[in-house]
Amino acid sequence: MSLLNDIIEKLRTKGCKITPQRRIIIQSLLKLDKFPTALELCNDIRQTNPEIGLDTVYRNLGLLVNMGIVNQINLHGKDTKVFELALGEHHHHLICLNCGTASCLDYCPVDEKELQKTVGLRFEIIGHSLELYGYCQKCKALTSLPQRLK
Ligand SMILES: [Zn+2]
Ligand SMILES: [Zn+2]
Ligand SMILES: [Zn+2]
């Protein structure tokens, strides 16, 4: 599990304490190879650690997101967030509105320096997130899908 150790090391250098819960959450994120919700993560974790509650998972996930260890991806129209380990470069996600699957897009179209010029002094930009909504290849074949978001 050297990947786990790398992540733990990254947390340490950021001055973040490695609690057993955080280690377990990271382990579970490594194990689940899709984009789990907090609830799915919690269910996975509880198979081996039944004492860990959803509150704990939420709280620690939030912290890991703030530390840049975990990416949070917002699904459209639902109050659902999914998570992935932030292993590679900063990137964005394509989200299918029909089946809810997310996939990574290894590209960032956002020029923060340009945006900062537009925003001026009233706000200092320190980061951004961006999700792209549409239909995956499988769902595109269905005819009853709306063509445009309102
Ligand atoms: Zn789809
Ligand atoms: Zn991703
Ligand atoms: Zn970006």
UniProtKB/TrEMBL annotation:
Pfam families: FUR (PF01475)
Keywords noted in UniProt: DNA-binding, Repressor, Transcription, Transcription regulation, Zinc
Ranges in coiled-coil conformation: none
The UniProt record lists the keyword Nucleus: no
Superkingdom as given in the UniProt entry: Bacteria
Matching InterPro entries: FUR, Fur_C, WH-like_DNA-bd_sf, WH_DNA-bd_sf
SUPFAM superfamilies in the cross-refs: Winged helix' DNA-binding domain
Family, as annotated: Belongs to the Fur family.
Protein name (record): Zinc-specific metallo-regulatory protein
